[in-house]
Protein 1
Amino acid sequence: MKNLKTILATTLTFAVAVSAHASVSPDQAAKLGTTLTGIGAEMAGNVDGTIPAYTGGLTTIPTDYKPGEARPDPFANEKPRLVITPQDLAKQKDKLTATTQALLTRYPTYRLDVYPTHRTVALPKSVLENTALNAVAAKTRVEGLALENVLPGVPFPIPADGYEAMWNHLLRYQGVALSNKYDSWNVDSSGAASLSTSGNFNAEYPLYNPSRPVGPVAADEVYYRAKFQYTGPARRAGEALLLMDAVDPIKQPRRGWLYLPGQRRVKLAPELSYDTPNPSTAGTATYDDAFLFSGAMDRYDFKLMGKKELYVPYNTYKLSYHKTTADVTTPNHVNPDLLRWELHRVWVVEATLKPGKRHIYSKRTFYLDEDSWIALASDEYDGRGQLYRGGFAHLTYSYDVQAPEAVNHMLYDLISGAYNLNGFYGPYGGPKYIAPLSKSQWSPESLAGSGIR
């Protein structure tokens, strides 16, 4: 943490030069590495000790971990310290999302097994160094919709508004490149589970590529790109999809390309954003529900509501790496025997649909983990203002590469009674962190070759 103080001190002149547009003052930024962690979380634990102080994250790799295989659960021998059932709803309500409350109200079989809290996330030194510089130099423009003076790191470790907090989620560190095979499952209101999508997933975060030229991020730079190669079910086998998100989504909106084997051609697919139903979830979620929120923020006003302590899925190795899907996709809700909940501090961001804009959700609430900036939970409301859907991301920490991830995430549809489990990689061993793909492998033309049945 001393390094962060040194970085801030040596860049004071730069900070003063941009202070008119800085997110925070140099004095405020000096809290990073002292009372705040390198990315802005509170260093101290909570008053009653149920959230511990941050001590640097999980830095010891379990002795039974074998590279290339599923990551062992470092907390496998722990027992729940608290079990929340529907009968406990009234006394635990202030620490539960609206969706969690609705599930406890609706299903007698739903419960939360709350385990001791572990603040496992630790990020690479380069990310922390850039975050310290971003604290005094980064800014948003175009009313929060684009970025300026941002280095590869958390843009706003001490956020001033909802847009800054959501940019932290969008640019969160998850490694440089990863690949995994996954399934997406739908469970309908009768309890029947069906395979919605199976495929191979490649994701890259080019801003964090060590070979990227040093310097602030350009407006047209891609911060996230993903390639999906579908292998099932039979009706989708052979399809392929490519998505790219840029730092300035107003100047460069999301780009998407789709390969359909029946047509044997790659076509531009500009509709793969906002509230377009995502076929990978059989329509249970929208494209911008991916990872609880993805894409541009121009349809909503984002308001930072502050922090709160919340029970959220965390260190979910037991569920995320579980081999047998049928054990997970139980009727009405994910199997509570496999899901680990912990008490963590989260940033709360409320998104309200702008006048004149269209989306199936009139309001959304996001809960962002203070230690990783990953959105861990969300509540979505329909045009009448009633709770419509709600999501959870299952965070695990890939301790071998210093990367938190929540590829495995889900959405409950509280109107239909169905739910979708997306990005479930348990049967296939989990994410593998790889070298970035070549430029040609990220071209739209590459889909034609990768998507052949």
Note: The chain has one domain: 2-450.
Protein 2
Amino acid sequence: MNLEKLTKELIDIESVTGNENAVLDFIEQFLLTSEFSGELIRNEGGIIAYHPSSVSNIALVGHVDTVPIDDQQVYLKDDSKIYGRGSVDMKSGIAVLLEIMNSNFKNVSGVFYTAEEGPMVNNGLELLMPIIKDNFDLEFAIILEPTNGEVQLGCLGSVNADLQINGKSAHSARPWMGENPILKLSDVINYIEENEIQESVIDGLTFKQIITATTISGGTANNVIPSQVNLNINYRFLPTQSENEAAEFIIETFSKYGVIKIKNTSNGALPNLESQKVKEFISISGAEVTPKQAWTDIARFSAEGIAAVNFGPGDPLLAHSPDEFVNTNQIVESYESIVKYLKG
């Protein structure tokens, strides 16, 4: 077993969302030529590795895609760290998943899926989940998202909405003939600054609800007052809300500033601390328990009534950063904790 070498090999395969075939080929070939004794299902959504003669009631789950590689991406040589795009999110988790599948736990299936970093509608689990539901009797899933060695429970929901602030175009030398929508941004910005972060405790865990603006666009030329400005409003809402409730809140809140249009929504997931499976994993792993301050595909499993946890190597604060790296010892520790649970 060489988790460090395997992680580096996976990082070397560029797999930006929409371009995952090469890394899926690597995963498929690895499993076919390794000690894994099960079978594979592959489609456009990814790969499921399983043992057909057994009852698969535990799934290990990881996405194979990454966000685009940064022009300033750091690649340093350090025996204690592995640098590169995807080292944290989540090639190191995929390496752990592959090595565990080599151990041939008969009740464990491995799910390697595409397009997690893109729009939810294109997520590979959309294609794989019906297969999982029809063929496996899952009771528990471990999502190998980076958690810094913590057991991170639940996840936030997400709404993206377009806020269009309208004005009236005019020559920039005669602004009084138009109405500049850029000057109306201050009211929206002030609201977001005052309400950006709100904390709530759910099952003893403190989740942060977030409202923020992530993109801005508008204007046609340097000498023209624009007719409109568009903001993307990103709302990370508490798992106690539904996506419909969250969308309605955004519409009610921002319609006074302009025309608000919901682009996409994703439900969150409650911590599910009452689940015996979750309790067992926490107990056996001995890891600290924290909330997941993001959206992950734990929400998909929660929606299907399958208990799940987020647990994997890497500091999530380094995910998507140009200096992204994972500590090699954390990869090994994550592997050992999951194996300990599966044996227990």
Note: The domain at 3-154+269-343 is CATH 3.40.630.10 (Aminopeptidase).
Protein 3
Amino acid sequence: MSAVLAPARMPQRTLSGRTVVVLHAHPDDEAIFTAATMHRLARRGARVVLVTATAGELGPVLRPLRRNETLPGRRRAELERSAAVLGVARLVLLGHRDSGMAGWTDNAHPYALAAAPVDRVAGRLAALCEQEGAEALVHYDPRGIYGHPDHVAVHRIGAAAAVRAGIPGYEATVAADRPRTRRPHLVDRAAGADVGWDGGGITTVVTADAADLRAKRRAMAAHRTQVPRDAVRRAGFAAAYGREWFRRTGGPGLLDSLF
């Protein structure tokens, strides 16, 4: 059965002195898939270390860039704003190149995350977890949530790093059988029906409270080049984005301490 982490109504035990490392593929993924969880952890006193693997060079540009501004530069600034909203204590950029969507020639670029040796990158990530004294590592499910090559790479790297570091892994996903809402989740817009994981394999569900939802909306809105304005309207936001889903590998860990 899934452990559903409901909004806190009573004072909760502090998580001060405890650390989680959260690995994502691109700037904006942290806001879309794990913002409420990261914000809840930081509110409870945990140290949240956000690791972003690429600069998202091949993402769309929904807002015009300024003169002489590059998309990687803008996306880094957006990521920094999002991280500040969510209470991230440390932001680490791995420096790989965006691989583009499945089937693009960019998948094979020598600096693309999808082409990077899993063992080498996992070793860097495991060393970071050990340096930080992390008790858990968040990454993606084996399908990369919706099949993006960089997301699949994040799963492989994260799974290997969690084993090396000897800590629980929490695979961010979405419930494939979740009720569909009037406002589609951004991942549904990107991939349609072939998204997420069967609910029976999900171990942990974080339900955002009002403060988490405000932070998640602000974090998503920070990614102005990537997130459409209609995705962060208040009406319907909680229904579309108020839950975050995880598959845990290993024993109970830091995310389970949220309830």
Note: Strands lie at 3-5, 19-24, 47-54, 90-96, 136-140, 169-173, 204-207, 243-249.
Protein 4
Amino acid sequence: MTLPELSPQHAGFATRQLHAGERPDSGITPRVAPIYLTAGFVLEDFDQATDLFSTGDGYSYTRVANPTTDTVEHKVAELEGGAEALFVGSGQAAVAITLLGLLEAGQHVVSASQIYEGTRGLFLDNLTRYGIETDFVEDANNPAAWEALIRPETRALFAESIPNPRNEVLDIEAVAAVAHAHGIPLIIDSTLATPYLVRPLEHGADIVIHSASKFFAGHGAVLGGVIVDNGLFDVNSTLFPHLVNPTRTGGPSFADRVGGRARITYLREVMALRFGPTLSPINAFLIGQGIETLSLRVERQSANALGVARWLEQQPEVHSVDYSGLESNAYHELAKRYLPNGQGSVFAFTLKGGTDAARAFINALGVITHMTHLGDVRSLVLHLATTSHNQRTAEQLEAAGILPGSIRLSIGIEDLPDLIADLDRGLAAVRALTV
């Protein structure tokens, strides 16, 4: 049986999240993509092996390519509107492989200040050891601030579409314009938005990264990361000689071989292959299963988050709520522009009573799970200053808007009245501190 081609121009997001990427073989076609749980694949004969190692087309070893992973890569590329996607073992691996594949010693990144702490640590503690420096933009929506930090050796701009943890919204088009004026790529970590809420490539980004462990999988059971490229690398660029010059053995350059896909092909054939952050076929399968309900979950999670944020905003124990869906939020107008289908489900709020209030609040919760994760179908809670952001000084925390009473929520798909009742139990514990 041969399935018809799905036309992305004439199919909605929910239809594509179910059917895009399916690549049926001739003969028997399973309704669900099978798990190819194997380290390697049998080579048909001498000549086929020679061709495979020469062209890279086909399957030889799961570290190079696997049909299960390949199916999910095609699905994500289509959902993001990209030319090609590459899955790796975690979201952090996706960030590291992308940056190490673009930059070398002596070069430079400009990043938004409000990003995931693991990525910030990668910039400050790890890339510096390889001679790669990073400067941070405090106001990520100020193009002049990005422009002021760009140097001749800058090779990438980095930001998040919905920054973790305070739910600000990035003006992607404004930052992309700065990047493209200098011929360098804009890399967007869009984990907290997912392609259901915003597709950064449509707004000028060049590369999109996701921690697929989060909303793509949805169930909190597996790890995975994905890199999606727009396929528009400038083959005449002089900024990335490793992509446009002949290979070490004198072979054609990546740009000569695959044109605008040179960037993602290099990440696949060199970076992922040699550094080896291979995604398990089982994880690829489970992430693919999760993607089939992505829009349903994100829609419900975003609606619940807005309901929770509105309720929290009215509580006297709450100092502030950082959620762009609120009319009072400074990012609300940008949210209406970039996130009309929902403003995501991860945000922070701050209790007036500081760390003691946060401790009492979190310990009193019963429905909302206390753990370090995001994007689960279950609602999650974490105190920021003592966990994910505990490597920052008090001054750095204050500059980032993270106070002693700041708490991050990742809202799930539970019934909203049950979530509010649980939050009310937490606030009752806060009120008890003053009795």
Note: The mean pLDDT is 93.
